[in-house]
Amino acid sequence: MTLPSLLGAHVSSAGGTPQAPPRAHAIAATALQLFTKQANRWAERDCADDECGAFGTALSATDVRTTVSHDSYLINLASPDPTLRARSIESFAAELRRCGSLGIDLLVSHPGNYMDEREAGLARNADAIAEALEMVPCRTILCLETTAGAGTVLGASFEELAAIIDRLPAHLQPRVGVCLDTCHVYSAGYDLANDYDGVWARFEDTLGMDRLKVLHLNDSKTPFGSRKDRHELIAEGSIGEGAFRRLMTDARLAHVPKILETPKGDDATVTDSRMIALLRSYEAAG
């Protein structure tokens, strides 16, 4: 029997991380993404043994086969401000420790904002990642997320992600991959709607498909090349249905976990279930 592909959504961990797997089960997910702490607060925490055990038990009662965490939105590993950068490294390392304790497979992280000079920011970002990975040895794979490219944010080009990874010590590079967000790359100038094959050829040439560890599936509220990060429901935005049909039937991506971060509407379970069913229909028709 062929197992269903890895497909899910970012689900709430309100009430504690053990509450996330049942929410993933409710939407028929085979992969899930969660926050292990409040994403908009600096306050850190450790995961106690009872929490880790409860999370594992809850997960075993679902069909989820891949788990993903997303780190705090406050972290800026590329900051030229030494206080903010030090605090960001501390928070990032704490996230890695929680992922290790919970047995999370993948950790998605946005490259930082360089604020002063792009090349300097790339170097600071890479050096901070290396420092945190050395501090926290664990099996969790860090996934640098593609960005839409607004302002001084890093990571809007495949070349910038490659530059960060290439700067890491060789022994740390196997612990780092890429999360490609469909809305972000489209907004950054990679036309998945009209040049699907070309986008993936550029990814292969610059990063290599083996670096792709997770996909964020989001349509875009804004036009191609807008440099804006505005997610839309699948097939209801400017990317459109065609690209998502190809993503769900592309043999190269069959093993890659696919996570929805689309708007939740009034009822997250209902909306996410509808989106997953739609994507599954593309897969079945492929």
Task: Explain what the structure shows.
This protein has helices spanning 20-26, 49-60, 82-102, 118-135, 158-167, 182-188, 196-206, 241-249, 268-285, and strands at 7-10, 31-34, 66-70, 106-109, 141-145, 176-181, 212-217, 219-220, 231-232, 258-260. With 286 residues, it is α/β, with parallel strands linked by helices. It has a single domain, classed as Divalent-metal-dependent TIM barrel enzymes (TIM Barrel, Alpha-Beta Barrel), CATH 3.20.20.150. It has an 8-stranded parallel beta barrel, surrounded by 4 helices. Strands 8-9 form a two-stranded antiparallel sheet. Strand 3, helix 3 (82-102) and strand 4 (106-109) form a beta-alpha-beta unit. The longest helix is centred in the N-terminal third of the chain and has 21 residues, at 82-102. The chain is globular. The two termini are 18 Å apart. The model has no long low-confidence stretch (mean pLDDT 97).
Strand and helix map with partners:
Blueprint: E1 7-10, H1 20-26, E2 31-34, H2 49-60, E3 66-70, H3 82-102, E4 106-109, H4 118-135, E5 141-145, H5 158-167, E6 176-181, H6 182-188, H7 196-206, E7 212-217, E8 219-220, E9 231-232, H8 241-249, E10 258-260, H9 268-285
Parallel strand pairs: 1-2, 1-10, 2-3, 3-4, 4-5, 5-6, 6-7, 7-10
Antiparallel strand pairs: 8-9
Catalytic activity: Endonucleolytic cleavage to 5'-phosphooligonucleotide end-products
Keywords: DNA damage, DNA repair, Endonuclease, Hydrolase, Metal-binding, Nuclease, Zinc
Function: Endonuclease IV plays a role in DNA repair. It cleaves phosphodiester bonds at apurinic or apyrimidinic (AP) sites, generating a 3'-hydroxyl group and a 5'-terminal sugar phosphate.
